Structure formats: structure tokens, C-alpha cells
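Predicting holo structure, zinc ion bound.
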Amino acid sequence: MTETENNESQKSNTKICTKCEKELPATFEYFYRKESIKEGLRSQCKECVKEYQQSKKGKEYKKKTNKKYRESEKGKETIKKWNENNHDYFPQWHENHPEWREKYKQNHPHRIRDYFRKMKKDDLRKYKQYLEYKKIHEWVKRNKPKQEYCTICNEIKELELSNISGEYKRDITDFWYLCNHCHRLFDKINQTHKKQ
Ligand SMILES: [Zn+2]
Ligand SMILES: [Zn+2]
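Done. C-alpha cells:
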């Protein structure tokens, strides 16, 4: 490749940010996606977009557009659908984000109460069961000796605790360590057995 050719190809693969004017590779690593324009990249680089989003002006803009969206017909429809499909998302997400949970509880005590009131009986039962499973899981994690190999495939991988009987007993022999692949496979086979 000659020097000019090299320069040409480099030129076509880069993009100049309209804000900081840096020449950067025209990839999703450096630019956010924008579907409405042809090449699919925004005109400002990620760094500049982030900087804007974190600025006071950017935050205010986002707040305004979010509010507008929430109040629009399309926004209302989307939120409604989301709530219908994810009514079990809320408690689980908050379970995993205790710092947010506390904040949310303090700021919206009535919302939490209403949420559990509106929750279907079946969902409430599932949620309680989920909390119970989680407790047992943590207990087993503390009490079962660690191992390096997946119990089924014997490979050294990142391991997960998998329940064997499906009954979630508070018993370390009712659990084994599996890699993610074997865990999913085992659960799948177990599920079909149960249905039969
Ligand atoms: Zn930039
Ligand atoms: Zn495995």
C-alpha cells in the first residue's frame, strides 16, 4: 500500500467531532449511534456527548424531554405496556440495588405500599418465594465449600450454585456448583422432567 492510499483509507474510516474537532475512528466505540442519519453515527464524539449530558444544561434538557415523552400519547402507551410486562421487575431490581431501595422508600413510601397492594396474589406469593430462595442461596453460598471445576463438565470456569431437587432445601447437598452452560442445560432437562 502506498502512502497516499494509506492516508485515503484512514480518512474514510475517521470522523471529526463537531464539538471538540478531534479526528477519531468512525466506530461505535467513539461515537453514539444515530439511526436517522446515513452513516449511523452522531456528529459529536462520545466524550463530548457525555460531557453535555452531565452538564446542567444537558440534565435540564433531558428532564424536559423525558417529561414531554411521559406525557405524550406514545409515552403513556409505552409506560403502560412496560408496567404490564414488568410488574415483577420492580421488587427484584430493588432487591439487587439496596442503596436505591432505601432512597426510593424514603422518597415514595406511598408508592411502595400501593405497589404491594396492587400486586396480584400470585405475584406476591412468587415474590415471597423469591426472597426465600434468595436467603437459602446465600446460606448455601456461605456454607458449601468452594470448588474450581464444574461438577458436570469438569471444566474450570466461573461457577454458579445450582439447586438439584428443585425444592430449594436448606441443605448444602441439595446444591452443586455448575458452569453457566451446564446450569442452564440441567435446569432445562429438569423442567421437562417435571412437566412429564
Ligand atoms: Zn468530541
Ligand atoms: Zn459445566
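The longest strand covers residues 41-45.
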